[in-house]
Structure formats: C-alpha cells, structure tokens
Inverse folding.
C-alpha cells in the first residue's frame, strides 16, 4: 500500500489564482480529512468526509472547497488564493474498525501565495 | 468552545526521562491522541487514550485523566532522534475530527 499520497509537494501561487490539492488513499478508508499547519503551530481542520458523497466543514473552512466522489480521492480546492492561505496542507485518512483509530497522514503540500 | 494547552518548548538530556503535559477543555470528548512530528515531515501516530489510566508502548507512555482534562506523554531513555514536535490532539464526536494543540518542540541534548 502507498498509504496517503498528496500532490503537488510544493507550489507557488499568485494572489487570486486557483488550484486543487490532490489527496488519494489506497487503504479503503471511509474517513478523510484536510488540515493546514502554519509555522510553529498545530494542525487546524479545514474539511472532512465520513464517506463518498459526504463532506462537512472543520474549524477553518473559509476560502476552501472539497468534494468526495470516490472513497479514494478527497481533493481540496482553493478558488481565489490569498496570502493568508500560505501554509502546509496535510491530508489524512482513517479506517472504521476499532483497531484503526489513528489517522494516517500524507507527506503534505507546501503552498506559498505571493 | 475548545482549548488545548501544552508547553511551547522543552529541553532534555539524552538518556533522561521527559514528561510533556497537555490540558484540554472541550465538549464531546472521544479520545486523546499524541503524534510526533519531525521538522518538515507529516505527523506520525504515537499513542491513543480513551479511558483513564496509563498506556505503555516501549519507551513511550501516555496517561489520561478525563475528570481533570489532563494528559501527559512520557518519553524514557531519550535519544537524539526524539528531538521533534509532539502534538496533543483531542477527538470530538463520532466523525473522528481531531482538534490539535500547538505542539511542544522537544530538543534532546547530548
């Protein structure tokens, strides 16, 4: 299993541009999450999904959109990039059984908005 | 609301023991997690407590007191590679949402 994969690894955007951060997991996990992490801080939940076709807002959803058309993929969309969205973005997934309580994180996407 | 507090940074000596504390105030508590994060990398799972008491996993142990809203991570026989940020996270409700503290930056010195 590749686990949770994210693309791109790094991206520079100009203010007002849009982009989609890709996240894919091959563990057949129902739950998927998007976090952002600013320097020296913990992770803040942006959006999450409990299964295909179901998404919900986290702590900091403004400026972002998500979709979950398949179990494997959970893309995060930035429509009008702003400097405040400069951050490291982590995608995570989790299974449903008691033995799979932990969230598995992808390697992250570093985004710089100038 | 929710609030999770942990010290910003700690320093310890190789071979020693260090305890990283975490206090929380949140509704819908459904478990407490500790993650390790090396600089520039993704968080990796260390431990999980949902009931009161101590969970031991090799050199790492985690304790939870739900009535006090308190947890700690205990690292024994510190190694240089343990230098990292340690994130305390509370899970809320059934959706598995994690609310993270800001992290504790641990530096292990020779």
């Amino acid at each position: 299993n590749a686990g949770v994969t994210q693309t791109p690894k790094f991206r520079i955007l100009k203010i007002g541009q849009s982009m989609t951060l890709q996240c894919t997991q091959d563990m057949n996990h129902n739950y998927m999450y998007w976090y952002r992490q600013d320097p020296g801080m913990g992770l803040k939940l942006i959006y999450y999904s409990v299964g295909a076709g179901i998404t919900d807002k986290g702590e900091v959803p403004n400026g972002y959109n998500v979709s979950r058309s398949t179990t494997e993929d959970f893309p995060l969309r930035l429509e009008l990039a702003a400097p405040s969205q400069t951050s490291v973005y982590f995608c995570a997934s989790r299974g449903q059984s008691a033995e799979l309580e932990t969230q598995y994180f992808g390697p992250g996407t570093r985004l710089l908005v100038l | 609301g929710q609030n999770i507090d942990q010290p910003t940074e700690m320093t310890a000596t190789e071979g020693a023991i260090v305890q990283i504390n975490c206090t929380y105030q949140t509704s819908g508590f459904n478990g407490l997690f500790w993650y390790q994060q090396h600089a520039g990398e993704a968080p990796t799972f260390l431990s999980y407590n949902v009931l009161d008491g101590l969970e031991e996993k090799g050199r790492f142990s985690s304790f939870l007191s739900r009535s006090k809203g308190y947890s700690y991570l205990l690292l024994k026989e510190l190694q240089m590679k343990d230098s990292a940020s340690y994130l305390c996270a509370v899970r809320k409700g059934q959706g598995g949402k994690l609310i993270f503290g800001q992290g504790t930056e641990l530096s292990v010195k020779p």
User: Anything to note?
Assistant: Chain B touches chain A through 21 residues (CB under 8 Å). The CA atoms of residues 34 and 88 of chain B lie 5 Å apart. The two ends of chain B are 41 Å apart (CA to CA). The first strand of chain B starts at residue 3 and ends at 5.
